[in-house]
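Blackboard transcription, Thursday session:
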Amino acid sequence: MYERINQYVTKCTLLTEAEIDIFNGLLEYREVPKKTILLYEGAVCNFEAYINKGCIRNYYIDENGFEVTLQFAIEDWWVSDIASFQHHTPANMFIETLEDCHLLMLSPQTKEELLAKVPKLERVFRLMVQRNLAVLQSRLFKTIATSAQDKYLDFLERYPIIPQRVAQHYIASYLGISAEFLSKVRTKLLKK
Amino acid sequence: MYERINQYVTKCTLLTEAEIDIFNGLLEYREVPKKTILLYEGAVCNFEAYINKGCIRNYYIDENGFEVTLQFAIEDWWVSDIASFQHHTPANMFIETLEDCHLLMLSPQTKEELLAKVPKLERVFRLMVQRNLAVLQSRLFKTIATSAQDKYLDFLERYPIIPQRVAQHYIASYLGISAEFLSKVRTKLLKK
DNA sequence: TATATTTCTTGTCCTGGTTCAATGCGCAGC
DNA sequence: GCTGCGCATTGAACCAGGACAAGAAATATA
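(Written on the board underneath:)
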């Protein structure tokens, strides 16, 4: 159950067996069926979830009901609303499973306990967030600077697995275009 | 020279006098005139700069010369291309002073030394990056989901100082709209 | 196998925003 | 006190992508 996550963490920093035991002991295992909303906008996010199996997305909804998918997460990714998790403030996004999931979860308390006992991990988490930030920066750039078609092609290249697992209109909402227009882009690409 | 930055850091964690001395001792002070490019795309970013005085922006340029401003930074902000800084890889953005600046800078080496000597700061930096990430997430959402006018109004509310200090076309490139259209949005707002 | 529900496609019309070009404005340099 | 240049405004033509509607496929449910 813990092989994958331990591999993930030890890619960033070396841990002793004892430290790994502490880590694993603090994780809470949960199985969640698909189409479950793990976090509602307005609620406080009390988890950081590592996906051992399954697929999750988090997304925003504006006043008019318009949806924007912030992230798709599959095996070996973490999911949370960090701002809400860190500061116990109401979340401004939703988190929803798209497939049946096996998760390994930290709460704010267990995370603090973990960091207190294994301070090395502070660095791992920082690097994780940094990576996230860098990816998001370049995504913002592409969202603004490139056409729908280029965004779609870029997405396919970067995440070739995702389209096989999630519905197309979710991808549209990730790219920031309408589901209809994505369909048109696709047919145009197929004709070539 | 160090009051401001020390205040900034001690807002997040308590440091002893000795630790503060180590911290300050590792910072490199630099004055830079305006319109200086501190980092070119393709170069390796070897600094994290705290702005003691001045104004800086970082931005992307695509193949067609189209510019997107990622961030305006003024007093009490940090500027860097973290991905490039952390992994010594070529930057994919530019960093440029918009005003004469007084900077306090860390290099990858001094930062590592600092974190080794004052491990507490690992957490400060993590929280800093987390805050950045959260802001960027909601910006991406707004970029996709709201009209040019709403983005502009939101910007004014969030950063009322910036428009007094930077040219309007930079703000347009931050909002992801053309300079001409921002001008039209503004005149429309004034008529009300 | 039939039925319901969700997803995807396709067409038509519409609009927010772009592009290009012209004009005006402010201010730094000499 | 000119001159030149970067910046902001305005207008006209254009277009990428949205909204809506209707139908076709695909998938789940029974």
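Lecturer's comment: Chain B touches chain A at residues 60, 62, 66, 68, 70, 82-83, 86, 92-93, 115, 119, 122-123, 125-127, 129-134, 136-141, 143-146, 176 (CB under 8 Å).
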